Amino acid sequence: MKIGIKKTLETAFTTPRLKDSGCLFNRPQIQKLLLFGLVLTLSTQAYAYIGPGAGFAVMGSFLAVFSAILAGALAMFLWPMRFLIRVIRYRKAYARSRIKRCVILGLDGMDPKLAEKMMDEGKLPTLDNLRKHGTFKPLATTTPSMSPVAWSSFQTGTNPGKHNIFDFLTRDKKTYLPKLSSVDIRGTQKILKLGRLTIPLDKPDIRLLRKSTPFWVTLGKQGIFSNIIRVPITFPPEKFYGVSLSGMCVPDIRGSQGTFSIYHTNHTRADEVTGGQYHTAKRNDNVVTAELYGPDNPFNNSAGPLICPFEVRILDSTSAQLKIGKDKIRLNLNQYSDWITVQFKAGFVKVSGICKFLLQGTEPEFQLYVTPINIDPAKPVMPISYPKVFSTYLSKQQGSFATLGLAEDSWALNEKALPDNGFIQQCLTLDDERETMFFDSLDKVSRGLCVCVFDGTDRLQHTFWRDIDTAHPARDDSSNDRHVIEDLYRRMDSLVARTIAKCKNPDTMLMVISDHGFNSFRYGVDLNRWLEEHGYLTLKNNDRNTKYLKAVDWSKTKAFAIGLGGIYLNMKNRESQGIVERGQEAQALCDEIRHKLCRITDDHQPNQSVIKDVYQAAKIYKGPYRDNAPDLLVGFCPGYRVSWETAVGTVTEKTFHPNTKAWSGDHCIDPSFVPGVLFSNCRIETENPRLMDIGPTILDLFGVDVPGYMDGKPLAVMIENDKT
Q1: What is the reported pLDDT for 307?
Q2: Average pLDDT, the chain
Q3: What are phi and psi of 558, to 5 degrees?
């Protein structure tokens, strides 16, 4: 069965006669894949998590399965008619196109100043060649300059007021608790209770909160095929003419944004840290036993999480043998295992995930790091690709790969659960996985659009900026001997060279872009403490260091901060306990807070500016979702960012905090300081291009009318041998 599936998938993505038409499958292959999709539907019934980090329901309803079978049968029956309509409708798909193919390589966080410096030093020859013979320009980012906001504007060609993403986090208007801004995942609403047994009767609800329409959906409506890989804020995946693999905000199998585990025999360790958990392992001579923790039991909410037991037999001081399920895997000290498939069972339901193990010590204490348990791309328990079978196809092509939205485990590094070298190796491996699927798309799609975003550029700059900032509080002696960021840029230059080698066709336009640049993050600013000091926020009984704004007295609080740079007014008829009147009072309060914040000073560095500007959402955003934004957005100067405590709604005892974490670089500052990059193999004449201009530009190059709702404008691109 597996051999047949693999052959079918490989054939489907390599059919020569379908390359020029942009069609992915021919008729027999579609029928086979539909049947295979039904098999997956029947065998993999897990679709959503319940709440942020709380796990997810793993049992779909019988009605959902029946509906899927009926839908598959209907799709096969109607396929000939749909194929004929597509041929007639899209026969002139490329008639107005100025290019045959567009390739967009996203290097999240690549900084134009660093790139320019290294190009001038001769360290980035490929990018320098693009600068000389094509285009190199700073690319204006969004306000705020955060990945989910910026990549959403890239996709949709709109300002945040139209796509509804303003931060990584937002607040629940009823409870004031922080929640993800990009996706809302709710468990099943209808259940049948039989004693302690709980049976879900409907499907969980997974909703993408990003609004507006990605430009590749518009391309698809005109018959132009797209392959979209790991673009942030594409979970759950949307239906369109093409294939996609979701990126940032895909959860792990527990429903969190990534929970690592440490198993140890040192009983003095804490049980829980930010982003992970420590578990005490039982050791008997040279055998250690423990359990992996999965999603909550879907049939009994009081039973806790599902477990997967494992055993580690210590062979010597540098190696051990892992036994999990029927598999036995050798573990070597400080070397990651391959991706290992693990299963969690609840009755007749099995939930499949993948993780890696890193043996960190055997004597005198045993310690084992386990990555967050990713959704298994071969048997996804949530929709992580479109069509669903696409992730299965990729796993058959290259083996298992990371599916977690934030797969690079920076929290484990911050908490010192991972050493520097262990984190670097993790980033390199994940980028290698991404390159394999990216180049597969370049080989398969000869006409249309290919987009792939690499995350390593962002994660390694976040965590190793301390090496290039000699005044950073987190810098240590090891920083003097490392060149992590320079090595990173050199690797990306090599990646661009290999990409260019696959874009030799003169009708292929290549763009290398980033969503923002980078700068140092030396000090965190506790905005809630500042608001408290100036009388805008009040705590109950002076209760500090309590997360999620739970210590705030809302009857006396006019403003509060949550997320990475936003301040909300406690508005009447918006927040559940609001006290600020809309209109004149709210505007006066915004003006007052803005005026005071722009004059804030750091006692430790009196000559250093802290905040460049504070932006009012009502003035900078346009669109139907503007009211969902923070009322004020703080544009920090380089060296400063909102504190770690503010991000999760904790009020500390002081406003300024030295940042001693490995996460030492950032871009959540005033957007004027951190533009992204734009490289291209074509001349682009437009001055001051913006990230939101990329989508309209691609539509224009393919001869597709730019929708009127888009705020971005087509760039002036000079195409060689252009007849228009």
Answers
A1: 93
A2: 87
A3: -100, -25
**CA-based angle 623:626:630, to the nearest 5?**
160
Q: Is 449 helix (H, G, I), strand (E, B) or coil?
A: strand
Torsion 604-609-612-613 (CA) sign: positive
Give how far Cα 416 sits from Cα of 372, 382, 413, 421, Å: 16, 31, 5, 12
For residue 488, give both structure tokens.
């990173």
Per-residue pLDDT tens over the stretch 90-100: 657 788 899 99
* Mean pLDDT in residue range 38-59: 27
Q: In this structure, are strands 319-324 and 327-332 parallel, antiparallel, or unpaired?
A: antiparallel
- Give dist(CA 384, CA 218) in Å, integer: 21
3-state secondary structure 121-167: CCCCHHHHHHHHHCEEEEEECCCCCCHHHHHHHHHHCCCHHHHCCCC
> Dihedrals φ, ψ of 498, to 5°?
-70, -30
- Alpha helices (H) in 373-481, listed in sequence order: 389-398, 410-414, 420-444, 456-464
- At residue 517, φ and ψ (nearest 5 deg) are -100, -150
- Reported residue count of the chain is 724
User: 615: closest CA among 642, 639, 635, 599?
Assistant: 635
Gap between the Cα atoms of 502 and 127, Å rounded: 16
Beta pairing partners, 83 = none
Q: Are 258 and 372 in contact (CB under 8 A)?
A: yes
Q: What is the pLDDT of residues 518-573, one digit of tens each?
A: 999 999 999 999 999 999 999 999 899 899 999 999 999 999 999 999 999 999 99
> Is the pTM of the predicted complex or chain greater than 0.90?
no
User: Is residue 187 within 8 Å of residue 57, measured between CB atoms?
Assistant: yes
Which of 159, 124, 243 minimizes the C-alpha distance to 512? 124
Compute the distance between CA of residue 172 and CA of residue 383 in angstroms, rounded to an integer.
Answer: 25
Radius of gyration for the alpha carbons in the chain, expressed in angstroms and rounded: 26
H-state helical runs in 178-331: 215-221
Query: What per-residue confidence (pLDDT) applies to 33?
Result: 34
